Automatic annotation (TrEMBL):
Residues 1-24, 36-101 are annotated as: Disordered. It comes from the Bacteria. Residues 66-95 have a biased composition (Low complexity). This is Uncharacterized protein.
Amino acid sequence: MGMYGLRPIGGTLQSDDEEEYEHRLAAREARRALNDIRLAEQPDPALVRKALRPRAAAITESHTGSSAQTSTRPASATRSSSSSSSPKPAKSAAPVRTGAVDVEEIQTRALALLDQLSAIDAQLALVAEQNGLAARARRSDLEKQKATILRTLAALEKARLSASGS
């Protein structure tokens, strides 16, 4: 105990409180586990952000389907594109087909979103009984997720109506 009765901040394991001692041991083990799984070379943050965007995920899925088309390109074209240090983003990266809307795809996405919505509602029911700052933050996060899913469902319904109306 230092002046004013405060403990010094640091990594010592000397403590009068057993709970604090256990907490520090658990933190040390967690830090060790995280350091064990850490990558030797961190990925480029721009590539990570790009990979996490849902539109980028849709693009990569469409490119895996068209990989047979890319293999028919001349070898000189593939060499010149792979020699550049960073991939150049295409102007029409995600072509939107307005003429062909797959109603079955819309329905499968809507059903998946409804499953997510029911799971979020169940979690909201559990968190509603709890009090405290962490419960309020979790409740707020779940309500934001629910609002996002409802907006997406509305957009899917609008797309379904426009597809069936035309």
